[in-house]
Write a structure and sequence with these properties.
The structure is a single chain. The chain is α+β, with helices and mostly antiparallel strands and 676 residues long. 20% of the residues lie in helices and 27% in strands. The protein contains nine helices and 33 strands. α1 runs parallel beside α7, α4 packs across α6 and α7 packs antiparallel against α8. It is globular and about 95 Å long.
């Protein structure tokens, strides 16, 4: 939307403010909360900070996206939610404001059991936040920041604007948003139990935050900053549930990060690249520095670690004092376009933030990522940000008038938005000039490793369960042996880090399994390592990365067409050729062939090249007497005496085949041949 048109719309709406004072309808969803009656007073209960009170909640949202009316409460087709909740006030300093924020849990009719539901298009869960947009005269800072974090590839709470009524009173414009918690659609970590006190269970999952203690949570530990200390709080497991072993383990991860960052230890084995997922730390800093978030690093700063995974920064949270905005009424003015928030002598957070930035290798990764995200068409390009801002303002334009009439907190939305756009223009230019060069890491050398087989939902077979039979094959397509030191599965949900001593021979494959013992027993071969958790049975990205997070290979498999059907039917996904693009479903087949007969590993045989184009060469210590070729389904295609040292594969189409060879002494070997 053009700027002039947008501001003209705002002006017209402000002129119509007198007619908007009685709230009857909205272009946004309408949330109606009615608390249960207090039996002593006969009046609806007030919503306290603690304990929660019970209430009914209806969310009016017409499925076709047209206007919503309070009278729609009687039409089930227009109700996104109609049920029970428990609700309380949320926030710290914001609770002193007249307009309150709320935390709520959707409940089943018994008022006890959680009710996992998809509110306003967000994935189903039961814990939700009604963000009151405190201290933000633009009304969009959190919304824009969370959306931007998602656009650059990280989970951040999803949001939906709505207008809220509580016990018959109009309460203003809110963001319905996800609460940060462990969930496959939120922070994708494994939930721990009090019995998870030994390795590998002890490694996760955790959610930890640096924050102030006014919310009532006990202090877990402190860390030095360059201008004081930073307080840390356990979020998952909860402070009252975390065990001594779990507390000590996760604190040790932060201490190891602090020590290695302080000494600029970039070693793949033992340095900070072995402790943290560097891309998540870089992206966390990108969002908080772009916004010049005055609370960043010291407050509302989350971290998480999944079982078997690296420590990750995020999700981003609470970015209202940003983009040039601060608590001006309290004499604070810290969000400037020409400072680094980790080094401005206020709320700088733990020392490792500045230490990482001062590490040339980390700063190079930061600069490279920043450069990529600010290119034309990318999310942090200024015109992209302007378009995002204009879309948000157009969405809330009429609700902003009612918000200001109610609370007098949005005195000049048009001016605020102008200031925010100018701030971003200056901020991007300043960061461009001060972030440094990325020449040293512009073109990382990545090993020729290819994800070549995936068994995401094996059938159960005898004593072997489906979950224990999963595997991923990785193939070295190069001509030399490769060290696997520092390489890891980067995408949350399925985790593995190779040992510093691990390697893979030229042209060979290795397997990662969900259960190495079961894999050996069921498939007859050994896996090099065991990943934690399980591959989802529908779709999931498998991302193989080097120690710095550079993507070596990535596959997003799916159980729906056009992907081949390997969903619980005894088959697995097989890449037709390692020379093909494995991101395309058409380059995979579903097969149930044995893994144990996949390679010509018998002494005295050599079969090459692999994959083959036309002629496949076959050598043996003894004379080869006969060869037999079958298709992927086992159907014999030809069986002939071996009259030369090569076999013509040019007549066969692309795919894989079984080849059986037999020498004059009766030695037989069967293996798989891939035709390009």
């Amino acid at each position: 939307m053009a700027k002039n048109y947008l501001f003209a719309l705002l002006a017209v709406l402000f002129c119509l403010s007198a007619q908007a004072q009685v709230f009857t309808d909205s272009n946004l969803p309408i949330v109606i909360i009615d608390t249960d009656v207090n039996p002593n007073t006969g009046q609806p209960q007030e919503i306290p900070d603690d304990p929660r009170v019970m209430a009914n909640m209806k969310i009016i949202k017409r499925p076709d996206g047209t206007r919503n009316y309070l009278t729609d409460t009687t039409n089930p087709a227009f109700l996104d939610y109609d049920g029970r909740i428990s609700i309380e006030l949320r926030g710290s300093s914001s609770q002193t404001l007249p307009k309150k924020g709320y935390g709520l849990t959707t409940l089943q009719a018994d008022d006890v059991s959680n009710n996992n539901v998809p509110l306003l298009g967000m994935p189903e869960e039961n814990d939700w936040i009604l963000n009151a947009l405190a201290y933000d005269p633009s009304l969009i800072r959190d919304h824009i920041s969370y959306k931007l974090s998602g656009l650059i590839g990280n989970y951040a709470p999803r949001t939906a604007y709505c207008e809220v009524m509580v016990n018959g009173e109009y309460r203003g414009l809110y963001l319905m948003q996800e609460k940060i918690k462990a969930d496959s659609d939120r922070v994708n970590i494994l939930k721990m139990t009090p019995s998870d006190n030994a390795l590998p269970q002890l490694t996760g999952g955790y959610i930890t935050k640096a924050d102030k203690l006014t919310g009532g949570d006990p202090l877990a530990w402190t860390m030095l900053s360059y201008n004081g200390v930073t307080d840390y709080i356990h979020e998952q497991p909860k402070p009252e549930d975390i065990t001594t072993q779990q507390h000590n383990y996760i604190q040790s991860r932060f201490q190891a990060l602090a020590a290695t960052a302080n000494f600029n230890n970039t070693a793949i084995a033992g340095g900070y690249p072995s402790i943290i997922d560097i891309p998540s730390f870089v992206d966390f800093m990108v969002i908080n520095e772009l916004s010049s978030n005055a609370d960043a690093y010291q407050l509302s700063t989350f971290f998480h670690q999944d079982r078997g995974g690296k420590l990750r920064a995020g999700p981003v949270w609470d970015i209202n004092l940003s983009y040039g905005n601060d608590l001006f009424a309290f004499g604070l003015d810290r969000s400037h376009y020409d400072v680094w928030q980790f080094d401005n002598l206020d709320n700088t957070g733990s020392r490792f933030w500045k230490d990482l930035f001062q590490s040339p290798a980390y700063r190079c990764q930061f600069a490279r990522r920043w450069n990529a995200l600010t290119q034309p068409g990318q999310p942090i390009r200024h015109n992209s940000l302007v378009q995002m801002i204009d879309a948000a303002v157009a969405l809330i334009a009429e609700a902003a008038i009612r918000e200001n009439q109610k609370w007098a907190t949005v005195p000049n939305l048009a001016g605020e938005i102008d200031d925010m756009k100018l701030f971003l223009y200056n901020r991007i230019n300043w960061m461009n000039a001060n972030i440094g060069s990325f020449a040293a890491c512009a073109n990382p050398v990545l090993p020729p490793l290819v994800i070549s087989r995936i068994n995401y939902n094996p059938n159960a077979s005898g004593p072997y369960s489906s979950n224990d039979s999963e595997f991923v094959e990785i193939t070295n397509t190069g001509a030399t042996s490769l060290s696997l030191a520092g390489i890891y599965l980067r995408e949350p949900g399925v985790n593995f880090q190779f040992a510093a001593s691990a390697s893979v021979a030229a042209g060979s494959s290795i397997f990662l399994a969900s259960n190495t013992s079961a894999f050996q027993a069921r498939y007859g071969i050994s896996a090099i390592g065991q990943f934690t958790r399980n591959l989802p049975n529908s779709t999931h990205p498998i991302v193989l990365a080097d120690a710095w997070g550079n993507v070596i290979d990535s596959v997003v498999y799916d159980d729906d067409a056009p992907w081949p059907d390997a969903d619980g039917n005894g088959q697995y996904l097989q890449l037709i050729s390692t020379e093909l693009d494995n991101s395309l479903a058409e380059n995979w087949i579903a097969t149930g062939s044995s893994l144990a007969t996949d390679a010509f590993a018998g002494e005295g045989f050599a079969v090459y090249p692999m994959p083959v184009s036309d002629w496949l060469h076959v050598d043996g210590a003894s004379q080869i007497a006969r060869f037999t070729i079958a298709d992927a389904g086992g159907k014999q295609l030809e069986s002939n005496p071996m009259t030369a040292d090569k076999i013509d594969f040019s007549k066969y189409s692309s795919g894989f085949y079984f080849l059986k060879i037999e020498d004059v002494n009766g030695n037989v070997r069967t293996g798989k041949v891939i035709r390009k």
